[in-house]
Backbone:
């Protein structure tokens, strides 16, 4: 949650955003994301981690799950897909950072599995929101990238146009979740593309190293 002019502005943006939500920034939990598939289970004692000081964020983590009230779980994105998991029956929730590497490693399915084992969630009770990300028309990849995916994933999200390969990460994530038992009706997928909509979203592919990040999170009051 910062603009392209620098990370030093992050605290101000975060405080402003949380103030508008009526929630203290000290209840937020951030990750130091590495485009992997490691997911941490967190509780109220983790509130504030990474909210002000980057070094206190959960290291080498790309997913958070919890059933604790009073904390907000957040991911930061700028083309990768943010994924929110919610189970109203078990009171569990989670947030995931799903770029192409995390998607190839099935981070969303791992999130569902952890909610099952840790909180007693059932796949049929989990609702999912897959947020704005680089779309399949824009996200060009090389052969090394699509070679990382299973055939079922490629059937859902690989496009071949004039010898160039494009990946629809959101479609792949949705397909993985459906095959893991989450009902299709429980999966909502944003149609917004971060690369196309420069007036609304940051994009690493479009802006490069100077790109800001958008924070996406879930909060249980």
Residues:
């Amino acid at each position: 949650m910062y603009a392209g002019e620098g990370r030093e502005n992050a605290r101000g943006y975060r405080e402003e955003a949380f103030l508008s939500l009526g929630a203290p920034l000290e209840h937020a939990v951030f990750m130091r994301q590495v485009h992997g598939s490691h997911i941490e289970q967190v509780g109220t004692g983790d509130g504030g981690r990474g909210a002000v000081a980057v070094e206190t964020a959960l290291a080498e983590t790309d997913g958070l799950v919890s059933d604790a009230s009073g904390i907000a779980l957040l991911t930061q994105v700028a083309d990768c897909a943010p994924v929110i998991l919610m189970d109203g029956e078990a009171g569990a929730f989670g947030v995931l950072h799903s770029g192409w590497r995390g998607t190839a490693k099935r981070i969303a399915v791992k999130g569902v599995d952890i909610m099952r084992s840790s909180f007693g969630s059932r796949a049929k009770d989990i609702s999912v929101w897959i947020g704005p990300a680089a779309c399949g028309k824009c996200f060009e990849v090389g052969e090394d990238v699509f070679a990382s995916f299973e055939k079922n994933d490629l059937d859902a999200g690989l496009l071949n146009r004039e010898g160039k390969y494009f990946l629809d990460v959101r479609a792949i994530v949705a397909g993985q979740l459906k095959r893991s038992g989450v009902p299709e009706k429980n999966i909502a997928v944003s149609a917004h593309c971060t690369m196309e909509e420069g007036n609304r979203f940051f994009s690493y592919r479009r802006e490069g190293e100077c790109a800001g990040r958008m924070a996406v999170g879930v909060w249980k009051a």
The chain has one domain: 7-220. The chain has a mean pLDDT of 91. Helices lie at 10-21, 100-104, 107-119, 143-146, 151-157, 169-179, 204-207. The radius of gyration is 17 Å.
